[in-house]
Structure formats: C-alpha cells, structure tokens
Fold these 4 entries.
Entry 1:
Amino acid sequence: MLGGSFSYHSCQRRPPLKPLPSEIWSEIFSFALSETLATNPSVDRPRLCMSLVMVCKSFKDVALPLLYANVKFRTVSCLDSFTACLYAADQKWDSIRRIPYSTPGRWVQILDLSELADTLDSRQVYTVDMLLTKLFPLVPFMTKLCLTPAVPLSRRALSSLTNRDGNSSLKALGGICYDVSFHSPVATGDDPFVRLLQRGFDSDFDSFPDSLLQEPASMVKLYLPKLHSLTILSMPTSSLLVSLLNTGLPRLRALSITPYDDIPYPASCTSRFLDVHGQSLCTLSFFTPKSWPTQLHPSPSTLFHTCPNLRHLSLEYPLPELALPDSTSTALPLQIISIPRPDMGFWRVLERLLPCLPALRAVRIRDVRWLGPGLSNRAQETGVQGELQDWRRRLGRRGIRVLDADWQDTP
C-alpha cells in the first residue's frame, strides 16, 4: 500500500481484562475512605459511601457493607429507624440461605452512641435501652461498641449483649455505665456486667454511686490484657471491683477513683485495688463527685509504696500525709502533683518529699485560677492568690512551676 504497510494483527482488539473480585474492590474502597477521612476529618463518611453506592450495581454490592460497617447515632430517632431496618431485614431472612445472619446486620462492625447524650431527653432513656436490647442480637460481627454513661444499660440489655451470637468478636467496649445494684452477695458470676467482661474486652468504664458491705463467696476471674484506663467514681465496692481484684491488668496506666481509705475491706475495695494494681499506674487521680451533701473520705498515705511509678498524682481533700518510700535514697519518677487548693499542712508534707522527687516539674492547683493583670498588686498578694504567689516563689527556687486550673503558670 502507498505510504506504508498494513498489518492485520495491529487492528485486533485486546481481550477484555478480567473483572476484579469484589474483595479487592472492597479493599480499594476501604483504603480510599480511610485516606480521605485522614486528610479531611470533616468529610461525611455515610455521604461518601452513598456516592459510591449510586455509581452502579457492582459498586453498590461492594460499598453497602462499608456504609453499614461504621454506624454513629446522634439522635434517638436515627437509632429507632436503624433498629427497625435491621429487624425487618432479619425477619425476612430464611434458613435456606448459606449465611445464617441477615444483612445489613452482619455488616455492622462499629456501633457508636457516644454523641447520643447531646440530644437525649431523660424520658428517652428507657426507649434507648429497649432499642439496644432489640439491636444487639442483630449485629453478630460487631467488634467495637461505644456507649454513653447517660444511658445505663438494664439487666435485659446487658443480657442481650452478652448472650448474642458472635459475642466473642467484640474487642472494644467504651463509655459503658456500671450499675452497682447488679452486685450479687453470692457470686460475682451472677453480675451481668461481670459475665459480659468474661469475654475479655478492651474497655473503659464509668461507674456510679452505691455501697455494698459483703464480699461474694464465689468470684469470677476476668481476662482484660488491654485495659489501659479505668474510672471508678463513688463506688466503694461491687461485684465488678471484686472481680478486678482477682484479674491481671498488665496495661493499666490511668486510674480515676473515689477514695474510701477509712472503710475497711471488703466494705471498700479501693485501697485494696491500689495494693494489687498500683505498680503499673502512671496516672492516678482521686476525685469525689460533687453532690449534696458531699462526703469526703481520706486517701491512702502509702501511695508511693503501692504506686511507685506514678508520673501524675491528683489528690482530693482531705489531703493525705504521704509517707516516704521504704528506702530514703529512692528517686520517684513523679512529674506533676495536683491538689485542690494551696494548703500549708500539705506544704510541709511536700517539702519533706521533695528530696525524693527529682523529676517533679509542676504543682497544679486545680480549683484556683490566677487573677488577671488588671488588678492591683495588693489584691494579688492576699487570700488564695497570695498563697499561690508564695508557693510559686518557694518552688521556683527548685525549678518547679505552679500551675492553676487552666494549666497556666502566669496570670
């Protein structure tokens, strides 16, 4: 031919590429979602997933599980609609199918109700508890559950969570409120919350008031190797505390607790808890919730014996007469100590401890703020402000800062 040559083979079309398996598409979409959310956290994840669902049927089959994998609720009406959707789908599911669990319930991996408290009315607490009781059996592959302390789970809801199929898949449990009325004087295994923790979750706790005076005759040992932070407020003892005393907590680093050192064991387990688990703690905060009438209990004076690795210690009234470690040459790693207000009695204790605290960098007065610069020098040298100035002068010579409630060292 004129102007060049012609080849028949060059006109043949290439064979079509084999379609990617849905598992690979799922990995691609998951990576794209995670990267997008990492670079721009304000992106609406459900809207992003829906944009993939609406592309074509093939994308819909892959993106729908991602849409249901991570579910966050901000209103009770959303929780109600979601539960009704999963329940209706489960009722239509038949035993002929190869997969025993219905969709979309089996796609759910993360349930997050932590922001529900912002819109929750006190009259809706029972409704939420009822909906969760109905919802838990429908999500057999849930790996993470984030609740809110504003909704304490009833025995019925806890039993629904504990006895559902696939409960061993739950690995992280946060924001749950423990009701000490579940305490059993016979056996800790009768406590529905203790039975739930027997599965071995990585959990954070919020606990609320009551008091009990008898140690159960039978105790359950839990498995919580990843538990790193724990909050136990206004709870001298309970089935949960008794079980935790007999459980290894190798990663426990932060503890917030209400002290009851004047109440002997087993009526109070708090001091015994520090004896057992204090070695691993880096942060220890004593706190008594303010309610009328507020009853303050003393803290242990042997904290540096039971918790020798503390970096941050926050004390509550009445301030304890902290005892020195057994060896006077021991250098403690404590870096920050917090007290409610400056106290001359505690100053003498602190002054005696300073030789053993070479790493101490700050003393925080958490209930007081520095006065603004607009006030006169006389006003800043009187009352609590004058005590703060005095503490700052004394500790400043040792290179230790005095911080106020806002973590500021200057007005």
Entry 2:
Amino acid sequence: MSKKAAKKRAAKLEKLSRKREREEDTLSSSLPLSLPLEEDESFSSNYGDVTPKSAAGRSSWREAVARKEFTDVSNLVKEIVGSEVSIRGRVHNHRLVAKIILFVILRESGFTVQCVVEEARVGTSMVKFFKQLSHESVVELIGVVSLPKKPLTGTTQQDAARSEADIEKSVKDGKPAARVLQDTRLNNRVLDIRTPANQAIFRIQCQVQIAFREFLLSKGFLEIHTPKLMAGSSEGGSAVFRAEDSFTHRHLCEFEGPGVEMEIRMHYSEIMDLVGGVVTVHIHNNRRKFLPQTLRLTFAEGIQMLKEAGEEVDPLGDLNTESERKLGQLVLKVNHRYPSAVRPFYTMPCENDSNYSNSFEVFIRGEEIMSGAQSIHDPELLEKRARKCGIDVKTISTYDAFRYGAPPHGGYGVGLERVVMLLCALNNIRKTSLFPRDSQRLAP
C-alpha cells in the first residue's frame, strides 16, 4: 500500500471512530441516569444456555415460556406495539453501544428484528451473556414490541446479500467487497442457504413448482408418482438421476424433473399448446414479460437461421450449446421436428419424413428448459425403432402394455432447477439446487 493510500485509510478510520463516539454520547444522554448496578440475583434465572437438564431446574423460565406461544418475526408489526411476545431466531449480528446497551439482530426465516438489551433493565451479566453469543446461535426471548422513532436500515429485507454487480462496482471503486467462491459456499451449504439471496431463490423455486402443479390440475390432470429406476431403456419423472459426464454450469446428476403425459387427439402440437400455457403461467407469476404466444420454429427453420448467421450446423444432428445460445437471441422459443437420430427410440417419427420426429424443446435465454415429444403407441413400430437403435427388445418388455390398447399420447419433462436459474438470470444451476449433485460432488 502506498503512503498516500495508507494516509487516506487512516483518515477514514479516524472519521469513523469520531462518528461512533458521537453516537455513543447521543445515546448515553438519552438514557436515564443510574448508579452502577450490582448484579441482582433475581436476573440470573432470566437467561442462560438451555439444555434438558438446565431447563428442568429453571422453573421461572419454564413457566414464562409455557404460557406464551411463539410469535413469528414476520408478524412483529405496528398493530402489536406494546404487547409482550415470545420469539425465537438466530443471532444475525450484535453491537454494544455506550457499554450499557446491546443491539441484537435476530433472524427467522429470512426476517430480522432488532432486540434491545439494556443493562438498567436486565443487569450487567445478562448483557455480557448476550455479547458472547456467536453468530447463528439459536435464541429464545420474551420482550415488549416497540416502534423506533426512525426506521431501521439494518433489519428485514434491507441487508440482502451483495449481487455480482455490487461486487464488481466495489472493485472498480478500489474498495473490493469480500467474495466467497462457489466451491467454498457449496462445501458449507448449510450456512450458505441462510443468506437472504438463497432464501429468495428457493422461495421462487417453490412458487414455480406450485404454479406448474396448479395449472395442470386446473386442466384436469391427475398427479401420480411413478418408479424412477427401471431395468430397460426409458425415462423417469420427478426426481431424476443421471450419470451425467458434462461438468458445465447447467448440468446436474440429480435434478427435479416434473413431467406431463397426455392423450393426443389430432396432432402433437397439442402438447406444445399446453407447454405455452405452463411457461406463460410461470413467467406471469414471477413478474417476467414475454410474448403471450410462444414462438415456434421447426428444427429446419432454426438450422436455416443459424446458417444465415454464418454458423455451420449439421441439418440432421443435435444443436450444441453455442448454437442453442445463438438461437436464444429470440429469448423464448419452441424448436420442434428434431431429427429422429438425436431423439430416444420411442419418439414418433414424422408422418411425412421419418428423418424427423414429432418432438420439441423449449428454450429461455438461449438454454433448454424442457424437452417433449409424441411417443410411439404402436407395439410393432416401437419394436422396429428399438432394433434400429440397437436396443434389445427383451429389455423393453414393459411396453407390452401397449398391446392391450393405447391411444396416441405424448408429454414433456421440465428441469426445475434450470428454469429457476434462467428466470433469475443466475450463472450456475448449482445455485438453484439445495444440495447439488454432479460428477464431482456427493456431499454435503
């Protein structure tokens, strides 16, 4: 550090120190004068570490807690000012002011409240007890709800985790904020998910799944739970386990994959119609704005657009990540009529060209979130496709159920974590998995 920078830093610290002294003087002058208190033994039963053994010996504490129900921190509102309440939360932070008053920030389910511990009311030892509590300690307390004269800026909703933009700005300003890298966060995931940003991510994920379920129930669908492990070639739904060798920002070995299966009456586009409704509901519920009618491109049309943009793409091959992103400049779209060669054996070939299939994929921000198709319901055609794909028909005997009659049908599967990642514009799918599992991680 240069002499100029060191001098500037010292001046800043001195200015901060003077500011704190002024705050302490102001607070001290506003408190009632009192003589130094000697420790009153009557306070000793009001605090302490709670274990089954200690709780049994603290009759006054046990009686006080037993006659009160817990009030959620989120329910501490002005309508109950003056009421005595019992709350439980984690120690988010604490700060001693003027040596006789302690501010303790408690956090519960993403909400925070400032608790004031005054020596004049509770005694010196209780203040010391609170001061030595480590961050994240779980605390139960009884107190009176009050409304501060000035709005607090360090509680509920206002101390959110820093964004990437904030961190980058701090670096440019020469005051770099602390940055915790992803592997460190995932290695300590139990603590990491307590941050306001992560709490928000998983609340959004919950709402996306609820919207998915409620929309389908409103359309007359029935929710079922199917086996995820099978002896033959197929795909499961809900929780999906996959030996994924792609170590990328968007792949996991275990993910939530809610899916749909439905009867087709006339054309497999009926499935895409349903997809449009699901996606619109998700986006509407999360305050995103996209076209109400999802754009549809055939695979061939997408290939042509890429060629016109100077991209070299196999017309009968699958799209790689970069090609998908290039097409993703349209923001939200459905690609359909994929080549049969890149689809599972049970995908129905197009009636007018068997090189293509009745299949589709849905993209947001240039990345796939959903894959679907019409399935082959004719047993003979299914066996023919299986042999062509090199699959032993004995391993797909469960499909013999189609010999008892099956209507034209199809469906799709959704990558829940990937949907949330893209809706929230996050840079890695591991941020939307509570405890991610990939090719390099099985713990925590």
Entry 3:
Amino acid sequence: MTQSSNATFEKLPAELLQRIASLGPCESTLALAKVSKKVRDACNDRQVYIAVIKNCNGYEGSSWNSVPLTNESPLSSWARYALADSKARQWLDRDFSGEIEAPSHQLSLFRRKFFTWAPQIMAASHPLVELASALQLARLLCEDKMYNDETGDDPVAVAICFALRLLSKKPVDDLMPVPRMDSKGAEIRNVLQTDLLTSPLLELEDSQLINQSGLSFQECWSRAIAGVGFLATLLRETLHTGKVKPEWGGFMHPFPPSELVIPTVQSLGSQCIVDFPLPFTESPKGEIATLHLKRTTDQEFLTNGDWTGIYAMSFSHWESIHFDPPMRDVRFTATPDPAHPRIVEFRAIGWDHIGDFKLDGRMNQATGAIKAQKSYNAPGHQFDWSCLMTPFGIVGSWGAFPWGGWVWLWKIPKSARSFMPTRSIFPPFSVDPVSS
C-alpha cells in the first residue's frame, strides 16, 4: 500500500474499516492492524474477530457456532480463537495424501504447531472435529519417537485429537470401517488395534497407586485416550452393521442399537471438563493430559449421575475383539482416604448380562490412576481393573492375559437418560473388524 493510498484508506469510517477487516482470514486482520493507529484501533474490536469466525475466515464451509467464549471475553482470546479457526480452515484445505507416505522428517512445521490449537477447538465442536483426517492422526500415533522427541508432537495432544475425531458424529471413511486390506489405512488400523487393545494399559501398585508398567504416564495417557476413540468406533461399526456373534449358539443376534447410546464429542462435553489453555499457548509436553483432573476426579463428578460402559475381550482376540453387553445403572459413592489426602476410595454398584455387581476401588486425584475390583454376587466372578480417569470417562484394562481386555465407563448425558432401556438380558457379542 503506497503512502497516498494509505492516507485514503485511513479516511474511511471506522465501521467500514471493521467490515473490511472481518471479511478475510485472521492473518489479514492482524496484518491490517499494523497499518496505522487508526486502523489498529478499528481492528482491535472483539466484534471484528467474532465476524471473522462467523465468515469462516474467508473460506468455504460450515461456520463455527460453538466458540467457548462470551461477548465479555478478552479481545486477545477472541483473536486467538479466530486465528485457530483460520489455521483449521487451511488444514482442511490441504491434501495429505503425500504426507501419509512421507518420512517423518519431511513433515512440515505447520503440522508441529497443529497440536497447540487443534485440541481446544475440536473439543468445542469446530467443523474440524468431523473433517480432520483420522488416517493422518493415526499415523502420528504410530510414531514411537514421539515419546522421546522433546521438540516433536505431544503424543497426548495427538491422542486427544484422534479420539475427538473418532467420537464425532461423522464417519471416518479413511480409517473406519476397515479399508481395503492392502491399503495404508488397513495397515495403520491393524497396528493401532494391536498396540492399543491387546495388552494392559498400566499396572498399579501400593496405596499411592504408582504405575509399575514400565511406561511413562504420558504414554499411558496417550494409549488410554486413543483407545477410547478406537473402542467407540468398533462399537459404532457393530451397532450400525448388526454383524455380531454370540458366544454360544450358531445364529446371528443383532444387538439392539437402542441398548447403548455411544457418546459423542457433543454429549461428553469435553470442552467443559478440560481446562484447556488458550490456543497457541506453549505448554510443557504432556501437560494437557492432566488438565481435566481437577474436575473429573472430584467426588461430586464421580457420584453425581449415572454411568454406563462396556468391556472387551481383547487380550487374546486381536483379530476379532469381543464385547459383552453394556454395564448399566452404575452409581458411585466416594469418600476421601484420611491417610492419603489425594486418594479417594469409592464403591459403585450396577448390573450387566451376568448380574448385579459392585466395583470397589481407589483413585489418585493427582494422576487420575484408578485401581478397582469388580465382583458379582455369583461366587468366583472377580476381576481387577487398572484404569485412568480421562476426559472421556474411566478407561483401562480388566483381568489378565488371556482372559481380559479393555474397559470404558462414561457418564450418561442428561439428554440420553430418558432413552435408556429397562433391564434386559442379551448374549455376549463380538465384532470382527475384518468382516465388518
């Protein structure tokens, strides 16, 4: 912009300057604010950034109507979310087909910064949560060096984005259901399924619930959160296709979809549970793993409302993970351990297709680690649980190889409680990811 055109531009009314600033991407708005003091004063208005988001940052697509801010939120917060929305639009406009096959060192800095803003907006139901490439996120989860590279992606942030994508309402066609067996999607899916679901999540010992598995809590958090998305997807595939196999008999027995309402990003309310920092906040690697614990390990969160969930036979069934019918009407009571201030002792009661059960355990509020024992009224039916409290519920493993697998309990959204069925008995079922 020349000096004469700059002078002419500054003569425009502030309202018109604001209108111009709101039509393009946020990066242009921020650059425009550097032209002069008058233009900066016009641009530095939260209504400008609200309009930028409403106009999709100048890109085509669905607008984002659930920004986790109010009209009273600071201007800087609106500017950060507007910039995150712009980055998301650019991300969705990219072609990742080359990056799926590319070596890790060839991936751009653009990707490295993705996880400083993507979890915040995906948890707030940004269109990115239904359109991001699940295959690309899954490929990142398969990179072992993530846990050892301090300058690389935060594995927990990657897992959160992966889980949020799989917990969205839109199918992930590039990864689920099973793609062609000779495709990259099938290879990555099989690696993830084997790595995530065929071994225990962690091993908890002593009264402080210390992890003895040999894995860092960061790795355990990443596995637990990514495992939630995978379990939700396998369940969704099962209920949609009706391809289930009873443990006894030789007939097909479709599991009624009404018997289990699989949670979504919207119903879980992850944005309300996790105290996310503002987008583009540089945080220590792995810190995002514990941002929800202040709320989710609170006794009131645990005891206020009903829980439901599933458990899988996955330790010895990696090619065909078996699920039993869901656990129902799970209700917790909890008391603090007087000897250990950050430890909460709890008991839950509920029922499943085997019968009534109770769940007695302990939870470390500092780490979210949970060690419990599930026991039925029928003698001999006792199973140990080792879990983590995640933003998506209680996730972990039960039993021991080969008789064991993964378990997931989540709070029933208030909107779904009126649709929960009455008590009924159904045979165990399994999903074969190859045939479904």
Entry 4:
Amino acid sequence: MGEMSGFQLGVIGALFLSVASSVSIVICNKALMSNLGFPFATTLTSWHLMVTFGTLHAALRFNLFENKSIDMKTVMLFGILNGVSIGLLNLSLGFNSIGFYQMTKLAIIPFTVLLETLFLKKQFSQKIKFSLFLLLVGVGIASITDLQLNLVGTILSLLAIVTTCVGQILTNTIQKRLNVSSTQLLYQSAPFQAAVLFVSGPLVDQLLTKQSVFAYKYSPIVLAFIILSCLIAVSVNFSTFLVIGKTSPVTYQVLGHLKTCLVLAFGYTLLHDPFTGRNLIGILVAIFGMGLYSYFCTQENKKKQSPDPLSSQLKDKEETLIIAQDKEGHEVKKPNKDSLV
C-alpha cells in the first residue's frame, strides 16, 4: 500500500514539474522571440538538449544517478527520431497557419490511441475516448482561429504527427521493456537529438525566418534569456521523459493541452493578450474533459489493482481442496504405518 502511495506521489510530482517547467519555458521563449526578436526556435532547441546532456553528465559524475548501458542502435535511432520530430513540428508551424498547426497538435492524441491499439493491443474504454474527445473539442475552440491548407504544410504536419507519436510511444516502451529510468534514457539519447538539431537547426531556421543565426547580433539581455531558457529546458526534458515513463504517451498529451490552456490564461493575465468568450468556453470544456479523463483513468486503475472477487473465491476453493486432499492422504497413510508395526 505504501509502495502504491509512493508511486502516486511520484506521478503527481512528475506532472506538476512538467506543467510548471513547460509553462515557464513558453513564457520565457515568448519574451525571447516576440519581444527581443530572436526567432531561431530549432537552433535554440538544440542548445536546450546540449545543456540538458551537460547537466546530466555532471549529475552522473556526482553519482546522482546510475548510468545503464542500452543498445547503441536503439538509442541512436530513438534520439534521431525525436530530433527529427522536433524539426518537423517547427517546419509545420512555419509552413502552416497557427490554426492548422494547432490541429496538428490535436491530432497527436487520436493517432497515438490508434497506434497503441493496433500495435501494442492496448484497450481504451468508451469513457476514456469520450473524455479525450471533449478535451480536444475544448482546446480546438480555445486555440484554433484560422485554417489555411497547403500541400507542403499538410505533408510536413502528417510527418510531424507520425514521428511525434512513435517517439513518445517508444519513450514509454523502452523505459518499461528495458527497465531503464527516464534519466538514463534521456542521458543516452540527448546527444543524438542535439546533434540532429544542431546540424539541421540553422538551415531550418533560415528557411523559416530568412535570417541566419550566425549573423544575429546577441545583446546581453538576449544571451541572459537564452541561458534562462536552456536552464528551464533541463527540467522540461527531464519531466517529459519522467511523465511518459510513469504514465503513458496519451496522458502526456493530455497534460500538454492543460499547458496550452494555462499559457492562454497566463498570456491574458500577464501579457494582456487578446482573450474572448470563445477562449474562455474552450478552456472550460477542455478542463472538464481533462477532469473526466483523470477520473476515469483513476477508476480503471483501481479496478485493475483490486482483486477480482470471482477469481479470489475460486482460488480459496482450490486451496481448501488441496488442504483437504493432503489431510485425507495423511490419514490414509497413518493406519498403514500402524499395521506394519
């Protein structure tokens, strides 16, 4: 019982860390890109991963966690896949309208459900599907304003959805099947993710912004925000792997949409972004869907953990029958022994 409550506290801590760090980095990056004019998102992400790896390497030196060997081919492919998915998401944002990009992010949940059902034989109840549907409708109402389609943007979005879903499913599967922690997996895969984005980042950013990251003039305040963003990213990357490992890719996506709602609310409160009744209704519907999802998941987990009464009764009957047979055999053997004496 104590072990279960400890696990639940670990999950709550991971969820809280993920939300707090993600909302913080969105606000930091929004100030960096919108207010200070630093538009190089993909290159910035590569720096995030380099700092994350450096931080974890220092933690390993101080024996804060134990490194575990993972098959190099698995880690390399996993790291490259995650790096590519980040690049594709940024390209999707660049080639599509904001509304279509939000649709891309919303499509990740149903596609993840589909992949887990087809390939991992995971079952999702109708209640869970209904709560996810409500969540997606709410986030859609709150965040989607315009939908402009184009062929290149649509292809990039589809590739981004596939790579993101597969990457997040693998994050959960590798941790459970190879019995590695989120820290161990992140430590070994971060260099490959960083390498992919470090090489492709400047090219992707130049394609999207028509500016070169090498020609940009870095002021002290821009450098300060970049350093702050990289430090927050350590917590974001760590909590991402932690949440997916302790829960599931779908739960992580649900959490991601909670962050979207919080960012919209913080944007209105702190940055005075435009906010309409439609945004408010969408956020309320989304939060209601999240609440239902959380409740149904909790109820289903309790059912899985509680013993089935029928199986318990059958087990008790089997044990009683075995005891009776043992006792009968002992009584039969006893007179035979006496007769020999």
